[in-house]
Design brief:
The complex is a heterodimer.
Chain A: H1 3-24, H2 28-54, H3 61-79, H4 83-104, H5 110-129, E1 140-141, H6 155-179, H7 181-191, H8 193-198, H9 203-223, H10 225-229, E2 231-232, H11 234-237, H12 240-253, H13 259-278, H14 281-298, H15 302-307
Antiparallel strand pairs in A: 1-2
Chain B: H1 3-33, H2 41-59, H3 63-90, H4 96-118, E1 133-136, E2 139-142, H5 143-165, H6 167-177, H7 179-184, H8 189-214, H9 224-236, H10 241-262, H11 267-281
Helix pairs in contact in B: 1-5, 1-8, 1-9, 1-10, 2-3, 2-4, 2-8, 3-8, 5-6, 5-8, 6-8, 9-10, 9-11, 10-11
Classes of the chains: A mainly alpha, B mainly alpha.
Chain lengths: 317, 289
């Protein structure tokens, strides 16, 4: 399928789902839970562009997510910016930082890069905690006022519709990256960076694209987060659970295909929503960690690896 | 900047550095010598803190005595963990990044398991020396920092002697340099690495007991130490115990000065910031080859 038609179908499906559920479902909890799951679709897809396609493990997903969230807070404090502008700026800020992270790959590979991303997240966290303008450790409120736009019954429905569109967009971008020559270049970097460089793959440029897109998409997912919760505090947005989830979901779904993270996010995200309500928030985090350990041990290619082992092109080992 | 304040910051920085050496010497062994990226190391430190705190609360045991008594258990835990890691990741030659994700999962699971078992409350220990402070002129010498300092430096120095003077220690150093050559000498590298990793985890248990003497501990505290435990070996040059001591001294003093002159809330950024710079500009460390 061509990229343009896939994108159109994905966006239309998102619109259709958002439209019909808004008309039929009245329970706001449904939208809040679905929003969270879709947010993980975006995060997992974004992580996978760098982690799965390019082979650079990012432990700092929470930092990019928080960049999006805090740029929305800043804009809201400055002039109560409209939500579309917040999303754009959140994406832009996180993408810029992603670009910077891309230059880091010049010096740091493999394990060292992963540790550096973790360090970066902690440094950013300390800065936010000490930044009084955005509330510091106390956190900040962002309250949507007036009536929900576009005839939605509540803001949660509206935000769900936006997140559905963003998820569809993110998946379309990931699919485009994978199927284009860009994706081939990234796969070459993942399999052997030195060999790729020697064969004429412009490794730096491709890595920069990959880190920028990955970071930007994570920032996009974070940009609507303050509106969704209305209250944001640093420990919440920088929570290690975002980093663990955005690694666990692609690993469980399968990292070498755009569909893997989507599958992982829907399964794991959905399961977490069910557990959170029926058991407890701590047990569902335990489950994510345990599943990550189990999958990385016994099924390194995830669910996609079981199902599509035969028939598709050979997977890198 | 007043003299006594400066002197106090310097002394508490150096005392802190001693403790930092205990925290990171395990990573220096596991990451620097064995090439096992045990990002879950801080989780084992917190486990050590909890063990010390529980023994202290139920039996009134001294945390350091508990740590020494429990170190065989931590050693065995490390042994088993390495066996599992070797069988599933190292032997099959899978990308090291999967091993990293594995340890990341272990870190997270341990943290959540501690929360599920004991809640998120801070735990601490009581011992006679914890409230005492010696005064040397204008400089304070709090025993809650001085006792961990002594224990930690003793542990680090004896590890250094062990690694450089004994046959087994030299085998550990050799396994980091050339596994194949070691194999040709008739030594099983896996057995060596297994025992060395056990020692690494045992130091984490001791470091945990020292940590809980210094400050109250709760499960998610561990992640704050991820930056620290990696920054020190990277800064000092991977796999060198002397370098670890030097790296710990730099970070300890830097953290103490930041906390004194800019406020404690900035202190966590120091270790991670130094780690970022060390990684970006001098990945082989200050004293690396």
């Amino acid at each position: 399928m061509k990229t343009s038609s896939f994108t159109a179908i994905a966006l239309c499906t998102a619109l259709l789902v958002a439209g019909t559920t808004s008309a039929l479902v009245t329970n706001d909890y449904f939208f809040s839970a679905s929003y969270t799951v879709l947010q993980f679709v975006v995060l997992a897809t974004a992580w996978n562009i760098l982690g799965g396609f390019t082979g650079y493990v990012n432990f700092g997903s929470a930092a990019f997510f928080a960049l999006g969230a805090y740029s929305s807070i800043v804009l809201d404090k400055l002039f109560e910016a409209p939500i579309t502008l917040s999303i754009l700026s959140g994406t832009a800020v996180a993408a810029l930082v992603g670009l910077g992270m891309g230059y880091l790959t010049l010096r740091l590979r493999g394990v060292f890069f992963a540790i550096a991303t973790l360090a970066f997240a902690e440094v950013l966290f300390t800065f936010v905690v000490n930044w009084d303008y955005v509330g510091g450790a106390r956190g900040a409120y962002v309250v949507l006022q007036g009536r929900p736009p576009l005839g939605f019954r509540s803001f949660v429905q509206f935000l769900f519709a936006i997140m559905a569109l963003m998820a569809a967009g993110a998946v379309a971008i990931a699919r485009f990256v994978q199927t284009s020559t860009l994706g081939l270049g990234l796969a070459a970097i993942r399999d052997d960076e030195v060999a790729a460089e020697c064969s004429g793959v412009p490794t730096l440029r491709l890595k920069l694209v990959s880190t920028t897109v990955s970071g930007g998409l994570m920032g996009m997912a974070g940009a609507t987060f303050p509106y969704f919760l209305s209250y944001v505090e640093p420990h919440g947005v920088f929570s290690l659970s975002y980093a663990v989830n955005s690694i666990a979901m692609p690993l469980i779904g399968g990292m070498y295909d755009w569909a893997g993270p989507v599958l992982g996010a829907l399964l794991l995200g959905g399961l977490q929503q069910v557990l959170q309500v029926n058991v407890s928030a701590d047990w569902n985090l335990f489950l994510v960690g345990a599943l990550l350990v189990v999958f990385v041990t016994i099924a390194p290619h995830g669910i996609m690896g079981w199902t599509f082992r035969r028939g598709r092109r050979a997977r890198p080992t | 900047m007043s003299g006594p304040l400066f002197a106090n910051a310097l002394v508490s920085g150096l005392l802190l550095a001693g403790f930092y050496a205990a925290v990171s010497v395990g990573i220096s062994i596991a990451f620097g010598m064995l090439d096992v990226v045990n990002i879950a190391h801080p989780a084992f430190i917190i486990l050590g803190s909890y063990a010390a705190s529980i023994a202290n609360a139920s039996m009134g045991a001294d945390p350091i005595v508990t740590a020494v008594a429990l170190s065989p258990a931590f050693f065995a835990l490390g042994l088993l963990l390495y066996r599992f890691y070797h069988a599933t990741f190292e032997r099959r030659g899978r990308e090291p990044l999967r091993g990293l994700a594995f340890f990341f999962g272990i870190l997270f699971v341990t943290e959540v398991a501690l929360i599920l078992a004991f809640g998120v409350d801070y735990r601490s220990v009581t011992a006679r020396y914890i409230g005492t402070t010696w005064r040397l002129g204008t400089v304070d010498l709090p025993l809650r920092l001085f006792v961990p300092f002594v224990v930690s430096v003793a542990m680090t120095l004896s590890l250094q002697v062990f690694l450089s003077r004994t046959f087994f220690g030299r085998a550990v150093l050799a396994v980091g340099q050339d596994q194949l050559a070691l194999q040709l000498m008739g030594v099983d590298p896996v057995r060596i690495k297994q025992i060395a990793f056990g020692i690494s985890i045992a130091t984490a248990g001791v470091a945990g007991a020292l940590l809980v003497i210094i400050q109250p501990v709760q499960p998610s505290l561990g992640r704050e130490y991820i930056g620290l435990v990696f920054a020190i070996p990277v800064l000092g040059g991977m796999g060198s115990i002397a370098g670890t001591l030097a790296g710990a001294a730099i970070l300890g003093v830097a953290t103490s000065f930041t906390a004194t002159f800019f406020g404690p809330s900035w202190a966590p950024a120091v270790s991670f910031g130094i780690l970022l710079f060390a990684l970006a500009f001098r990945p082989s460390g200050l004293f690396g080859r």
